[in-house]
Design a protein that fits this description.
The chain is mainly α and about 425 residues long. It has one domain: Growth Hormone, Chain: A (Up-down Bundle), CATH 1.20.1250.20. Helix content is about 75%, strand content about 0%. The chain is built from 15 helices and 2 strands. The chain has a two-stranded antiparallel ribbon with strand order 1-2. It is globular. About 55% of the residues are buried.
Length: about 425
C-alpha cells in the first residue's frame, strides 16, 4: 500500500516544482540563446557560463542543504528563496555584456539552488517513503520538460533577436517566481517528523563527505557516480539544443516540432516512474539508455528541414532524459539516510549538476571547436553547432550502460 500524501502536498509540489523548473529552463536553455543572439557568444562563452553556474549550484546546495537540516526547516528557505530568486531574474533585463551575464547567473543560481536544489529537494525527500518514491519522482521529473513546453509556448510570440523581448521575458518570469514564493508561505507544510540536527554546522556540512559515511551508504554514492555520467551526456548537447534546431537544422518553427515531443515525453515519464516501484532500478534504467541512444542516432542523421525525423529523435531523447531523471532521483532518495535529507543534497547536486556541468559543456565545446561560422546581418559572426554533439553524447551513454552493469549489477531495490 502506498502512503497517502494529501492534496496539499501535491498542489505545493506541482506549483513549486513547475515554477522552479521554468526558472531553470530560462537559465539553462535561454541564457545561452540570450548571449548568443545579443552578444554573439562563442561555444567557449556558453561553456564557461554553464560551468560557473554548476560550481555555484554545487557549493550553494552543499552549504544551504546542511543549514536547512541544522535549523530543521524547509518552508522558510523555499518561500523566501523563491522570492529573491525572482528578483534576481528581473535584473537580467538590465544586463549588456557576456561577463556580467555570467556573474549574475551565478548570483541567481545561489538563490535558486538555495530554494530549489537544497530546500525543495530535501522537502520532497522528507515527505516521501519507499512506497511512493517512484510516483513522486515520476511527477517531479516530468517538470523540466513541462517547463520547457510552458516556456516555448510563452516565447513563441516574442522576437528573441530584439532586446526588448528579453526585458519582458525576464520581468514576467521574475515576478511569477517571486509570487510563488509568497504563496508558498501559506501552503507549504514541513514534514511533521522534521527535527533540527544536534551536530555543529561544521559537522553537518562535512557529514556526507566522510569516507565512513560513503562506505556505509555505498549504493547511494555508486548511484550518484552513474547519475553524473548520465548528466554528462545530457549536458553535451543541452546548452546548444535550441541553437542547433533553429540555426543548424533551419527549423524556424522548432517549437511546433519540439513541444509535442516534450508533451508526450512528459506524459510517458509519469507512468515510467512507477516502474521503479515495481521492477527496481536496473530493469528500469537500461531501457532509458536505449531510448537516449536511439534518439541521439536519429538526430545525428537528421538534416535540414527534416521535421518528422527531428520530432521522432527529440521524442526518444527527451523521454529517455526525463525517465532517467525519474529513476535516478527515486533511487537516490530511497538511499538517503532518514533525517539527513538536507545534508545529502550537496552530494546529490555534485552528481546531478556539478560534474555534468563541468565536463558535459567542455566536451560539447571541444567537439564544436571547428564548427562552421555564419555572418549575421550586423556583420558579426556566430558558430553553427553540428551533429557531433549527438555522437559525443551517444558515446557517453554507451559508457553509462557499461558502468551500470559493472557497478550496480548486485544492487537491488525492494519493491
Amino acid at each position: 500500500m502506498q502512503t497517502a500524501l494529501g492534496r496539499k502536498f501535491w498542489i505545493s509540489m506541482l506549483i513549486f516544482g513547475l515554477m522552479g523548473q521554468v526558472a531553470w529552463v530560462v537559465e539553462n536553455m535561454y541564457f545561452n540563446v540570450f548571449i548568443y543572439k545579443m552578444f554573439n557568444a562563442s561555444a567557449a562563452d556558453i561553456s564557461a557560463m554553464v560551468m560557473a553556474s554548476a560550481v555555484t549550484a554545487a557549493l550553494t546546495t552543499i552549504v544551504m542543504g546542511a543549514v536547512s537540516d541544522k535549523v530543521g526547516k524547509r518552508k522558510a528557505f523555499m518561500s523566501v528563496g523563491y522570492m529573491i530568486w525572482g528578483i534576481s531574474i528581473i535584473s537580467f533585463a538590465y544586463i549588456r555584456s557576456i561577463m556580467l551575464t555570467i556573474v549574475m547567473d551565478c548570483v541567481m543560481t545561489y538563490f535558486g539552488s538555495t530554494a530549489n536544489d537544497a530546500a525543495y529537494n530535501a522537502w520532497l525527500t522528507d515527505r516521501g517513503d519507499s512506497t511512493n518514491r517512484g510516483k513522486i519522482e515520476g511527477v517531479n521529473s516530468m517538470m523540466p520538460l513541462v517547463a520547457v513546453l510552458v516556456v516555448f509556448g510563452g516565447f513563441m510570440s516574442f522576437n528573441l533577436d530584439e532586446h526588448s523581448a528579453w526585458v519582458t521575458i525576464y520581468y514576467v518570469i521574475g515576478i511569477a517566481t517571486t509570487l510563488i514564493g509568497v504563496l508558498g508561505w501559506f501552503i507549504i507544510e514541513d514534514d511533521p517528523g522534521l527535527r533540527k540536527t544536534e551536530e555543529s554546522l561544521g559537522e553537518t556540512l562535512a557529514y556526507s563527505f566522510r569516507p565512513s559515511v560513503a562506505k556505509s551508504n555505498l549504493t547511494l554514492y555508486i548511484t550518484l557516480l552513474n547519475f553524473a555520467v548520465f548528466g554528462i551526456s545530457i549536458q553535451i548537447f543541452m546548452p546548444y539544443l535550441i541553437i542547433y534546431y533553429e540555426k543548424t537544422l533551419g527549423l524556424d518553427n522548432y517549437v511546433l516540432i519540439f513541444a509535442p515531443a516534450i508533451l508526450l515525453a512528459a506524459v510517458a515519464t509519469v507512468f515510467y516512474g512507477r516502474l521503479y516501484d515495481r521492477i527496481g532500478f536496473m530493469k528500469s534504467t537500461m531501457p532509458v539508455c536505449a531510448m537516449l541512444l536511439a534518439g541521439y542516432a536519429i538526430l545525428y542523421f537528421t538534416h535540414a528541414l527534416a521535421a518528422v525525423q527531428a520530432f521522432i529523435g527529440s521524442l526518444l531523447a527527451m523521454t529517455g532524459y526525463l525517465a532517467g531523471m525519474s529513476i535516478f532521483g527515486a533511487m537516490i532518495r530511497d538511499n538517503i539516510p532518514e533525517g539527513r535529507a538536507g545534508q545529502f543534497q550537496g552530494v546529490r547536486i555534485i552528481g546531478q549538476v556539478f560534474v555534468p556541468g563541468l565536463i558535459g559543456p567542455a566536451i560539447g565545446a571541444w567537439v564544436l571547436r571547428d564548427a562552421d561560422m555564419i555572418v549575421n546581418s550586423d556583420g558579426t559572426e556566430s558558430f553553427m553547432p553540428n551533429a557531433q554533439i549527438w555522437s559525443a553524447a551517444g558515446i557517453v551513454i554507451v559508457l553509462l550502460a557499461l558502468t551500470l552493469v559493472l557497478t550496480m549489477r548486485n544492487v537491488r531495490k525492494e519493491a
